[in-house]
Sequence to fold (662 residues):
Amino acid sequence: MSTTETPAADAAHEPQSYEFRAETRQLLDIVIHSLYSNKEIFLRELVSNASDALDRARLEALTGDGPALAEDETLEIRLVPEAEARTLRISDNGVGMSRDEVIENLGTIAKSGTRELAAKLKEAKDAEQAAELIGQFGVGFYSAFMVADRVEVVTRRAGQDQAVRWVSTGDGSYTLEDTHRFHRGTDVILHLKPVDEENGLQDFAAPFALEGIVKRHSDFVSYPIVLEATEPASTDDDADEAETTAETTAETKTERTLNSMQPIWTRSPSEVKDEEYTEFYRHIAHDWNEPLDTLRLVAEGRIEYKALLFLPEKAPFDLFYRDSRHGLQLYVRRVLIMDRCEELLPLYLRFVKGVVDSSDLPLNISREMVQHDRHIALMRKWLTKKVLEHLRSLQKDDFEKYLKLWKEFGKVLKEGVSGDPENRERLLPLLLFPSSAEPEKLVTFAEYKERMKDGQDAIYYAAGESYAAVESSPHLEAFRDKGIEVLYFTDPVDEILAQSVPEVDGTALRSVGKGEIELGDEEEKKAAEEKLEERTKDYADLLESLQKSLDDHVKEVRLSRRLTTSPVCLVAGEMDMSPHLERLLRQAEGMDLPKQKRILELNPEHELLEKLRARHGENAEDPVVGDYAELLYGQALLAEGSELPDPMRYTRLVSQLMTQGL
Fold:
């Protein structure tokens, strides 16, 4: 998303002013004034950004995409508070930013989806919900404005000579100017607001306050977080009061590392507190929420690696964006090689966050090598299996927690059924669907099978755009009369899933809107077949006439076994595409699909059809019969949610019918 540039000066080294877009200013205002109840979180976010910059510097040096690091160089984050000046500087010697990167990363909040976020924020019920939304859009840097009246960023990109200074007071605008910085990296200088304990504004220029925040939120960061503080010189305990007063005017510079730097996944589980897992998750996932669940894995044998994985509580805003990046962090012997390694888990598990640390991969492994490395392929297979096994255990042992996960990520898991045949049998038990038997509950295939009627030979499902649309479908009438449960497939991915699952544990999966339907035991089926044959003879002339009138629209007109109260419905052949799937493909892919003819089924017991048959028997050439054919076809289309071929003609026919009735 671009910003509106308003040059304030022509000289290259003089400041230029820029304005944020309108919706960006709105988001910034929310971040500053109502986002966090715990304002100390700003330091966690800025340290996290600095850690990411150090990761990139090291990775670019390893891959040759950036300058090599000096042999004696220490990658670190430094905190420099100045009590008198009321400033706090967070410095790193990471990759830094160019002028264009500053505009892209600091000049624009939520580079993609900002309008969508703004719309959702208007619907947010409280500040906590707003925090969840904004956190998903990656705007942690702007939390600095909660504690600072003015924020400066001085940064120099690795491999470039020119540095740039970014300055903003959080009023919706910022200035840029060229400046100087001796080394690559970034300084974030906060001009702190006055201390206000009642409103959560501690003295963030006090070393003890910074030390406590780092211990709580950033102890796991793998680079030294060094506190560089100016402190009064120490005094002799035996000195008299006058001497002590004189000596405290002297000051000394002190440095100390605040974090342990021990990777959390290498520590014994008994040593790690839940709060530490939460903070680490927030660090790698850029999420404000706590993780829903945590999974620690250790693989030993031919390939050795450790994994620390998290299941999020909330779906990110870009879960279904085509261009969104996903994947686990890949470490080799505790060195971050890839921030988002997509090859470690299949796409349908893209919501899983975490790290994998291997001892068997080369430090200079490239993205191209990862795509073809046999170790990565084996890791992917093992990790996928373990995640799915964990989900199955969660479903059995803590269904309420699993249900939370399903409501956020169920649609994504369903993608794996057609996309990952190797793990299909592990995925099928995890699936949940609404059902005609239990409207308030989601059920599994196993639960459905336990309730199947004697003689029932298939798992039946009905597909549609929503629960309400499926619930009112005429295709369900005979099933309700027989007390046969039907699963409701209402997610766009459900019908694609059904195409790849002909059966579940030996039981066929069948659509209530396709093919012929035969319900009941063998005796009931035989009786229904005989009755249908008899009625078909009675209706033969009318069926032929209707077929002639609708030949351009349907491939067959026949009597129905599935209708009990509605006069008409449309069904597809066993191998045909359903109208719901056809609409989805046209909308999502823009596919130019050939027109698909379906079958028009009539209810021979309905009064309307009985009277139409009688009128046709009196005069087979009666034009009203042709009009009724179009009306019946239109009624069937509307009942399933499809568009009419000629809405104006349909309304005219309905008007004529109403006039005749009156």
Remarks:
- The first helix runs from residue 22 to 34.
- The first strand starts at residue 4 and ends at 6.
- The radius of gyration is 33 Å.
